[in-house]
UniProtKB/TrEMBL annotation:
It comes from the Eukaryota. It holds the Pfam family LRR_1. The lineage of its organism: Eukaryota, Viridiplantae, Streptophyta, Embryophyta, Tracheophyta. InterPro entries: Leu-rich_rpt, LRR_dom_sf. This is Uncharacterized protein. It comes from Salix udensis. Coiled coil: none annotated.
């Protein structure tokens, strides 16, 4: 009874098999860091997989909408490939999804409004893509989110104020936002007291650095480079001992 198929770093070539129905108990397929190509078969949408990982291959084409039918899916990681096209709104049906990694592909378009339903997300990464539009307000629905990476994604600012409710966040990285040069004030992150990494580089932030930044006692890495901040560094930073800037 095959439940896990882990074939990482095996120098595999070729395309993905469409028929996984022969393995009805298959929960995990990890083909990371091989030389596989082609597209994700639509037939995979009929499986009951929990983990799909295909990091670092040569896959192309769009993500098939049928992936949104895998109601058991918890982790979907397809970073460092050549996937393209818009993300199917059907992915918003993945009611158990905790990890969605799409970094370093050629995805375009806006994040689907249906993503507001991904309330179980803990780790969302979309850096190094060609998305368009602003960072959507829908991220405020992801109240279980612990890591958010939007670096060089193609999205524009401002950082939506609704981000303030993501109190479980430990790692927030947003950088290189597109835009017309209109600045926005520092986002309201005072309740993110668990933050260990805060990177807001080249986000067109204007004005003063708020006092609460120096009061994030768990913070170890802070990068606010290439913004339009002014004024003095708050006195609250005097008590910060472990952070690197």
């Amino acid at each position: 009874m095959l439940k896990h198929r882990v074939l990482k770093n095996q120098n595999l070539e070729g395309s993905l098999p469409p028929d996984l129905s022969r393995f009805p108990y298959l929960q995990e397929i990890d083909l990371s860091r091989n030389y596989l190509n082609g597209t994700i078969p639509r037939e995979w949408g009929a499986t009951q997989m929990v983990n799909i990982s295909m990091v670092g291959n040569r896959f192309t084409g769009p993500i098939p909408k049928e992936i949104g039918n895998i109601s058991t899916l918890v982790n979907f990681t397809v970073e460092f490939n050549q996937f393209s096209g818009v993300l199917p709104p059907e992915l918003g049906n993945l009611s158990r999804l905790e990890k969605l990694h799409l970094t370093s592909n050629n995805f375009t378009g806006q994040l689907p409004a249906a993503f507001e339903k991904l309330t179980t997300l803990k780790d969302f990464r979309i850096g190094d893509n060609q998305f368009t539009g602003e960072i959507p307000n829908l991220i405020q629905n992801w109240t279980n989110l612990q890591k958010l990476v939007i670096q060089g994604s193609g999205l524009s600012g401002p950082i939506p104020p609704g981000i303030a409710v993501l109190e479980k966040m430990t790692d927030l990285r947003i950088s290189d936002l597109q835009g017309n040069g209109t600045g926005a004030p520092f986002p309201p992150l005072a309740k993110m007291i668990k933050l260990k990494i805060l990177i807001l580089r080249s986000c067109n932030i204007i004005g003063l650095i708020p006092d609460f930044v120096g009061e994030l006692t768990s913070l170890k890495t802070l990068d606010l480079s290439f913004n339009k901040l002014d004024g003095e560094i708050p006195d609250s930073f005097l008590g910060v001992k472990q952070a690197t800037y």
